[in-house]
């Protein structure tokens, strides 16, 4: 079953054979025996690629759950006899991971040196089960999910710009002024062609903006703001140090972009494993201390 799952994900028998450290004939035998036991074809084979049949797709999804449960049962038995050890697979929004979560993981591993953390940094909404992820830290609203959700709070945002840029262009006095400024546009964020702001009295403003620089990564936006390539909305945790040392300043401080939810997603079958629980509890405590992260 493990061989079948890896072939379904890789689509190549020789690649899986190398990964498992066996001959390709062994992989083929495993697949033939599994299909014979199940009684239906699970894979379609060509000279270049192996793909799942309709029956194979359904069987693959069930196999993932079964293998997770088998692994969980063994790990829970080991955890009852010894200190938590083994791997936890954590996925995190890329910029947040680089700026803060890596250091949180360092502290976690100092306390639990036998736990290995495999950190996956991506802004894509990946399939946690398919990718073998235990826990995911996500920014933004989440669609309905079969995952266990732990809300951590909200990430507050603000408008920023470099003092040198603002000295040349002048400082905006009201939201409507923003349309004449260069904006560092996040190309992977829906609606980034306008800035949405809330005033102190609750009035909402939607200002169309544009810019000659479009980026798809928060760290690139951070560098662009500091280099004076334009203004834009950003998370406080991404630029708090640049604000503190004067490389950036807040623009229209009385007006704020809406905050963004911060959540942990946990694969339900993994939630009871001791080392996963330890990492989740540690993240819950430490993420709430980051700049701009506040209770919902």
Automatic annotation (TrEMBL):
Gene3D superfamilies: 3.40.190.290, Winged helix-like DNA-binding domain superfamily/Winged helix DNA-binding domain. Keywords: DNA-binding, Transcription, Transcription regulation. The keyword DNA-binding applies. The keyword DNA-binding applies. Pfam families: HTH_1 (PF00126), LysR_substrate (PF03466). GO terms for molecular function: DNA binding; DNA-binding transcription factor activity. It comes from the Bacteria. Residues 1-53 form the HTH lysR-type domain. InterPro entries: LysR-type_TF_proteobact-type, LysR_HTH_N, LysR_subst-bd, WH-like_DNA-bd_sf, WH_DNA-bd_sf. Transcriptional regulator of the ttuABCDE tartrate utilization operon. Belongs to the LysR transcriptional regulatory family. This is HTH-type transcriptional regulator TtuA. It comes from Rhizobium pisi. The lineage of its organism: Bacteria, Pseudomonadati, Pseudomonadota, Alphaproteobacteria, Hyphomicrobiales.
